[in-house]
Amino acid sequence: MAHAKAMATFRAANSLLHRMDPRIKLASLACAIAVIVMAHNLWTYILAVAAALAMCLASKIRLREAVWPIFYLFPFFAVIFLMNFFFYGRGRPWGKWWIFSPSLPGLLQGINVVVKVILVMAASACLLISTPPVEMTYALQSLISPLRFIGVPVGQIALIVSVSIEFIPSLFEEFTLIKEAQTARGAQFESSNLFKRAKAYLPLFLPIFMTAFRRADELSLAMEARGYRTEKIRVEKRFPRPKGRDWLILLASALLVTAQAFLLKAPI
User: Which element (helix H / strand E) includes 29?
Assistant: First the structure.
């Protein structure tokens, strides 16, 4: 339960990532995600893993703390992998049964997608752990503020992101409670049989969705009761100017994206 409460929540520390300007952190994370998504061969994957590890090292958190919640999302990754494995539709299939046609390209694509999602989640977890949610909301609002001149609801987007981040730990805690209750009733979450594990996880999703909708409804009622109006102009936080260190990190992040673009042409 302690792990559930600590998931994706801010922890005060004195790491490089904690001291960085929140806007630079968000921009650097965007660059890291771009590097990860662009990976498709050996060298680009090495750079993608390096980008995720750099985020973890800069935040001074153990790699296990950044990736351990991923193991609780096993059904999600299993579905992604199996969909690519059976339905990718490229290459010579190993066999065909009904609508399923597993193949080597499908196997590789399934691994490719799952690894990328894991790396993106690990890098994002480092940012969530090193940045208070309020600071992240103001940073996002500051970065996308020019879009308001073309009619984009910047304040509403920042609010949605902030609320979503706040919901992650509580929903994960709810997931842990339901899982423990199902385990007490005999559910086999640790079975070696892949299909039995997936079947055991299926009853967890409906209560989680119901909890999410209930809490969202309660939050909307509370905001309306306090007179919150999204169309009102809200005061933006004024951040201090980024330091030279922050600009160097942003430059390094941009160079990583550039290097990844060149490595895409590598033969391996």
Answer: helix 22-38
What's the domain range around 212? 2-14+21-263
Determine how many CB atoms are found less than 10 A away from the CB of residue 183. 13
Query: Which structure tokens are listed for 139?
Result: 């940073």
pTM: 0.75
Residue appearing with tokens 């994370």: 29
C-alpha distances in Å from residue 242, one per residue of 20, 25, 96, 245: 8, 11, 57, 8
pLDDT tier at 193 (50, 70, 90 boundaries)?
low
Burial of residue 58, with CB atoms counted within 10 A of its CB: 0-12 exposed, 13-18 middle, 19 or more buried: buried
Q: Would 188 be classed as within a structural domain?
A: yes
Taking a C-beta distance cutoff of 8 angstroms, is the pair 209, 86 a contact?
A: no
DSSP 43-77: HHHHHHHHHHHHHHHHHT--HHHHHGGGGGGHHHH
268 in any annotated domain = no
Residue 101 and residue 21: Cα distance in Å, rounded? 49
- How many structural domains are present in the chain? 1
pLDDT of 232 reads 56
Which residue shows structure tokens 């299939």? 93
Measure the CA–CA gap between 110 and 117, rounded to whole angstroms: 11
pLDDT band at 248 (very low <50, low <70, confident <90, very high): very high
Computed over every residue of the chain, the mean pLDDT equals: 78
Structure tokens at 146: 């020019």
